[in-house]
Amino acid sequence: MFKLDMNKTIFSLFAIILLCSSCAHEFNQVYKSTDSQYRYEYAKECFANGKYTRATTLLEELVSYQKGTDNAEECLYMLAMAQYCNQDYESAALTFRKYFTTYPKGKFAELADFYIGQSLYMSTPEPRLDQTETIQAINAFQNYLDAYPDAKMKSETQDRLYELQDKLVRKELHSAQLYYDLGTYFGNCTSGGNNYEACIITAQNALKDYPYTEHREAFSLLVMKSKYELATMSVEAKKMERYQDAEDECYGFINEYPDSKYVAAAERYIKKCKVVTANAPEED
């Protein structure tokens, strides 16, 4: 029985090898063919069957051969889609943009404009990394909505924009948290200032740029904590002013987030600030 199963397995593997060899031979014949129409139809068949690498290989050459023909527009768009489906998002974004520039009124123009942004969206990195691609994707999607106010993909585009904006917010939150965690370390403060000041500025700018973010409390918490820490390390000339500023920030936090689990921490900061300001020497 074991020997029979082994024979079946070997036969199956042999059949697969023969089939792959036959397919590869067929593709090589098509690729070497001088009949561009034949190659184009084969490329379309590959695309339809999900063989995107083969479709891309053929279409990249056929794009130039098909210029001026009835197939030129479809060929360029299909190349972009093949690259996208093959997860080559950088190339896809460039090809979709080329299509949209070449055929701004073409039958695939709206979809191509959407997929410029979608391709960039698919290549955006996680929030801790540089977000240049994220900004490019946002701009591309915004251009799409501007060009097509009643866009077919309007709902999907708006969802993508929310996701991308949140990624930018989380990038700023990570930066602000990193400054706070670095605390009194001055090795990275080559241009003056300190990490707590950098945290405050980063968080406050994020709150201005994204006032309705779901991470608003997290930014506010970092501002409050950083202002208190900044006060504790201040020189005497600035100490009272900064403790008062920290106290005001704590009251502001409590007023905005009365149900926050950090209210108790804000109240502790207030008590500490009052101890210092209450013992401040009177001015002459």
Protein architecture, described:
- Helix 7 (132-147) runs antiparallel to helix 8, helix 8 packs antiparallel against helix 9 (195-209) and helix 8 packs parallel to helix 10.
- The chain has helices spanning 2-32, 36-48, 52-65, 72-85, 89-102, 109-122, 132-147, 154-182, 195-209, 216-232, 236-256, 263-278.
- The protein has 12 helices and no strands.
- The chain is mainly α and 284 residues long.
- The protein is 75% helix and 0% strand.
- The protein is elongated, with a radius of gyration of 30 Å.
- The longest helix has 31 residues, at 2-32.
Approximate helicity band: over 70%
Q: Name the quaternary structure.
A: single chain
Radius of gyration: 30 Å
Which regions are unreliable across 5 or more consecutive residues at pLDDT < 50?
Answer: 13-22
Taken in chain order, the helices and strands follow as: HHHHHHHHHHHH
Q: How many strand segments?
A: 0
Form type: elongated
Total of helices = 12
Q: Which secondary-structure class do the elements indicate?
A: mainly alpha
Strand content: under 5%
Report the average pLDDT across residues. Answer: 89
- Measured between the Cα atoms of the first and last residue, the distance is 105 Å
Give the biggest sheet: none
How does the SSE layout of this entry go?
Blueprint (H helix, E strand, L loop, with lengths): L1 H31 L3 H13 L3 H14 L6 H14 L3 H14 L6 H14 L9 H16 L6 H29 L12 H15 L6 H17 L3 H21 L6 H16 L6
Helix pairs in contact: 2-3, 3-4, 4-5, 5-6, 6-7, 7-8, 8-9, 8-10, 9-10, 10-11, 11-12
